[in-house]
Amino acid sequence: MASDGADPAPQVFSGFSISIVADDVASEQRMFDALSVGGDVRMPWQPTFWSSGFGMVSDRFGMPWMVVTVMGDIEG
Description:
The protein has a four-stranded mixed beta sheet, with helices on one face. It has a single domain, classed as Signal recognition particle alu RNA binding heterodimer, srp9/1 (2-Layer Sandwich). By secondary structure, it is α+β, with helices and mostly antiparallel strands. The protein starts with 17 loop residues before the first strand and ends in a 7-residue tail after the last strand.
């Protein structure tokens, strides 16, 4: 659970990102795509040397996210 408080003024999110880990590439892609709707993709989802998928996005509310697949999913 997380809360940004009850302040009615718009919130500014900076200096952190929420990380979410998916069990598989398909689940991660769905989460990344859903967070991207109306948001700002900062790093497109793609394979990396540490994971079979990773991407960074700020959702439509400005909340920054890092979406990653568990390392055990890497082939090779």
